[in-house]
Amino acid sequence: MHADPATPDPLDEAEAPTPGVARQTVELLVALCVGVLLFRTFSAEAYVVPTGSMAPTLLGHHLEVTCPNCKFPFDVGLDDEAPPPRPVCPNCGRGGLESEPALPCNGDRVLVQKFLYDFRAPERWEVAVFHYPGDPSQAYVKRVVGLPGESIRLARGDVWVDGAVARKGPEDVRAMRILVHDSRYAPADSDRYPRWEFRRGDSRGESPSGWSQGAEGFRRAPAGPGGDEDDWLVYRNWDPGLERYAPIRDYYGYNGGDGRSDNAVRDVGLEARVTLGPGVESLALALRSGGDRFVVRIPTRADEPVEVTRNGVDCKAFLLSNPLASDPPGEAHTIEASVFDARVMVLVDGLPLFVPHDYDDPADAPWNDESPVALGVRGGSLEAPEVRVYRDVYYTSNLGVAHRRPNAVVDPVRLGPGEYFVLGDNSPVSNDSRFWAQGPVVRRELFLGKPFLVHLPGRAVALEVFGRSLYWIPDPRRIRYIH
After folding, report:
1. Fewer Cβ close by (within 10 Å): the C or N end of the chain?
2. Domain containing 354: what range?
């Protein structure tokens, strides 16, 4: 994806009723213009994102579609040289949406912090704007993944540095995770193809579950005698292309239903907003990564340890903090759990629960093809109004239908002094270091700066007056910082 400098919007001047106020207004406007000019000249510059190679982090020109099956709003990219792709809902998998209303939107407008890289070097996982090495007159925006002196290779969808997988921290995970399903948008066909299943213990239906789903989300009520059994809320991934439950694949709703999504993704995550009621003994999180199954148990008593198991075997967990054991019942908490890049990580209210658990020997056991994540509770009642399932970026070895020998896939790429390797988040359509004919590196002197703010989002919202949608304006809720 390349970025185009934005054209500044004109300022509307208004006539003031008195000369004194008019003079103050003119002076204010002049000062504002000078401030903006100085800011743009010496600190930041605005760019328009025209393409979707960094989607969903940054959106290019696109259509907004709302799925009639689950009411989930999603974006489908537009290409000036090709017809619009076939919309398929990334939340529930419903296709056949070509006749649904679609709102054309421009690309995101971003502010780029200039001259930052004159004072420090680009860092791994951060988004950067640079002159395209093949045509320095063009500005591209990608994510930095390889640093000077490193050997970079792409394998199993991950970035490998000097023979070891490159792992992400909490902020990197949040910045790069891609939404697979949001429980707030329940599909109308859930009775036929349920996305969530309630299981008591390890059985299916043999013991009564206390879970239920309503307009306010999920609720777990005490389900009678159960000993030390967990009551599980289990996500099941429905693949519309295969018409069955299947592993999460590298599907991008932005690329449409004709885009390739051939790769099963082992890096999955869960985010849930929960409120624990009286009597809850522990909360459990289950994540499946390929042939591995990790279970993290968070107790509500301070004298009980946090447990982490891998395929039923205990792992060492060095506790950092456990708000569930210190806060009284009725407090709302946000739980984030992920197994990205062979790293198990759990955060409660934004703080790490334990030191991340890293492993370098993924199990060769068969994949579980339907239940990548689950949320369990032992004892008491619990409310979970929001539960979201995520996946990590999966770096592919192909660019659309182009058959090229990709850099860093067959053989590692050794970066020299001042050389960087960059990739797009929308890997199936990103023209990046993998495919450049002139070579895979971006030299440090080509970097222009770091985009830090989407100040005019491409996504639009209706401006209603007396109940009527008169104008479409950039959605202010989508103004966001860029990591």
Report:
1. C
2. 196-235+266-391
